[in-house]
Amino acid sequence: MVAEVSLPSAVTMADILNAVSVGLIVVDQDQNVIFWNGWIEKHSGVAATGAVGKRIDEAFSEAPGKTFLNAISNLLQYRLPVVLSNALHRAPLPLFSKPGDASGNERLHQSITLSPLVINDQGCCLIQVTDATTSIKREKILRSHSELLRKEATTDGLTGIYNRRFFDEHFKIALGNSRRQNTSLSVFMVDIDFFKEYNDHYGHVAGDKTLIQVAATLRRQLMRASDVVARFGGEEFVLMLPNMAEDAAYRFAEKLRLAIWELNIPHEKSRLDHRISISVGFSHYQKMENTNPDELLNTADHALYEAKHRGRNQSCFMKLPAHPNRTSYAAS
């Protein structure tokens, strides 16, 4: 049941339609403007007296977009409502934020709905325009927050390189690709030598600065988008490089070691020339019979411990085991 309300004699329907916070335009079958409300006046800078009677493509200070004009033509022809996506058509009409001053202002983002309307037995088009600026800004903020959360979920907060979670996920993907495509995959485990002693002597603030510097230096050694370096935990890092020959892996491990050595970061408590150094353990997978690619990460980790056992500040290579209990190694 619809209640009928009698309007006071001094109030007209036009008064109401001019007061709403929605733009309303009505055009007749010939696309001539027959109604132009206050919201449209306010944001277009064109008074209703200057718009009514003109064709819609001539009523504004500049012609509306072609998509908008085509939508009106289609509605008048087929009598079907049309909604213009504000993602694809953000500002088809010259509507601006500052009341009564359209010049030089940024256009409002608009949501536009066109509906068929019958007035005096004549088919017309009702155009409803709302300001979508706030919702689009909110959408941008949400996207920005989403990107920030994604970055936080995959990036180490201290060093800015990838974290363990990112590495674990992408290592599985890279290993699967290597198996399917018969390509190689090399993994390098890196540990800063005597880092506990460094923290104890210089303090954790200095330790954090050194971690950041080492991480940045390791990252600079990478040459391809497919190469990955991540903080594995504490003072330990991991690098994963696909499509690298085994002899190139030896050279790369030494490149990592020398890059950190040449930073010449003082370390009074190190037994290695009193500066920061790293130990590197690495292994290499190439699809072949009787090797176990699932042991690639563990084998690189064992190689790292062997490098440390041999005195640190060196790299050590271990071959993937042909059988679970048969691992051989060789120092580079």
UniProtKB/TrEMBL annotation:
Q: Taking every annotated instance into account, which residue ranges of this chain make up the domain GGDEF? A: 183-320
> Catalytic activity annotated for this protein?
2 GTP = 3',3'-c-di-GMP + 2 diphosphate
**Broad class of enzyme this protein falls into:** transferase
Q: Give any Pfam family that matches.
A: GGDEF
| CDD domains noted in UniProt | GGDEF
Name of protein: diguanylate cyclase
Query: What InterPro entries is this protein classified in?
Result: Diguanylate_Cyclase (IPR050469), GGDEF_dom (IPR000160), Nucleotide_cyclase (IPR029787), PAS (IPR000014), PAS-like_dom_sf (IPR035965), Rev_trsase/Diguanyl_cyclase (IPR043128)
* EC number per UniProt: 2.7.7.65
